[in-house]
Amino acid sequence: MSYILSKSLGYLRLVRPANLLTAVADILAGIAVSGFLHKGYSNYLDLLPVACLCLATMGLYGGGVVFNDVFDASLDKVERPERPIPSGLITKTQAIILGSYLFLIGILAAFTVGRAAGVIALGIMASALIYDKWGKHASWGPVNMGLCRGLNLLLGISLVEPVLQHYTWMAVIPVIYIAAITAISRGEVYGGSVKTLRIAAVCYAFVYGTIAVLAVINERLLPALPFLVLFVIMINAPLIKAMKSPTGPNIGKAVKGGILALIAMNAAWAAAFFTLPYALLILLLLPLSVLLARAFAVT
Asked: pLDDT over 90 for what percent of the chain?
């Protein structure tokens, strides 16, 4: 029994449970932008596309982080020997099978919603694999990683294709945000650069500034404001600390804060485009994600 439990925990560590919830939050924010929920529903089956997209993003994100550890197995053996693959708890073959199944689930679930969703899902998978294999150590890597999140937001919006065409540009916002976090994360082991942290601060300001502007345009600044304030605090508090002392542990906290703050950011999107209760529903994912982050690594 202890072997089965250890193995199961190893697989859970590979898929980063806390991060999966941030991916679901992306989808829920995209759905808010799409306006899909504005129409009335007489049957819970009418909401099946929402469930399918949530399943799709969990499969795609899970597959991406599993293959991240597959490609990094040799490096992790030196820098993070406690991880499931270098520790021998999960073999590389087992991880490849898990990651492949997760990608398959994600793509199939997306195609059940529509062609646009399926094509975006394929784009997310391709972007994740390119980052895992090559982008991580390249200068363009942070933008590559950001593209995965940008496409994930579009995956939620794809429920209403005319809206998707109108708001395709919104993918730029998570691209910039995640690119900044990814650039910061490169100093997680040996310490980072203050210059990189300052550039990230500018990128962060652009992100929450853009959300605020859209909230004003939609005449929903007041409902969005509490979520924006929470988002700003969550990302800037650890970032400022890292600027004062850019050590590995402080960089790690800044990265972790940035990842978990994705839920607050997505709640702000929802409040800016839909209703306050729906935004609060997304925000409920935050305490669960924080609890999972204490048990499982987010990077």
From this structure: 80
Q: Half-sphere exposure of residue 291, counting CA atoms within 13 Å on the CB side? A: 5
Question: How far is C-alpha 239 from the chain's CA centre?
Answer: 18
Per the CB < 8 A criterion, the answer to whether 60 and 27 are in contact is no
Which domains are present in the chain? Answer: 13-295 (1.10.357.140)
Q: What is the DSSP letter of 298?
A: -
What is the distance between the alpha carbons of residues 64 and 135, in angstroms, rounded to a whole number? 13
Structure tokens at 58: 């969990």
pLDDT exceeds cutoff 80 at 246: yes
Is a pLDDT exceeding 80 seen at residue 299? no
- What length does the chain have? 299
What is the four-CA torsion angle of 226, 229, 234, 237, rounded to 10 degrees?
-150
Nearest to 183 by CA among 168, 170, 202, 169: 202
- Provide the H-helix boundaries in the chain: 2-15, 17-34, 48-71, 73-79, 92-113, 115-133, 141-157, 161-166, 172-185, 194-217, 221-244, 248-273, 276-283, 285-295
Instruction: State how far the Cα of 12 lies from the Cα of 295, in Å rounded to an integer.
Output: 10
This prediction's pTM: 0.93
Distance CA 30, CA 35 (A): 9
What is the radius of gyration, based on Cα positions, of the chain? 19
- Cα–Cα dist 251/260, whole Å: 14
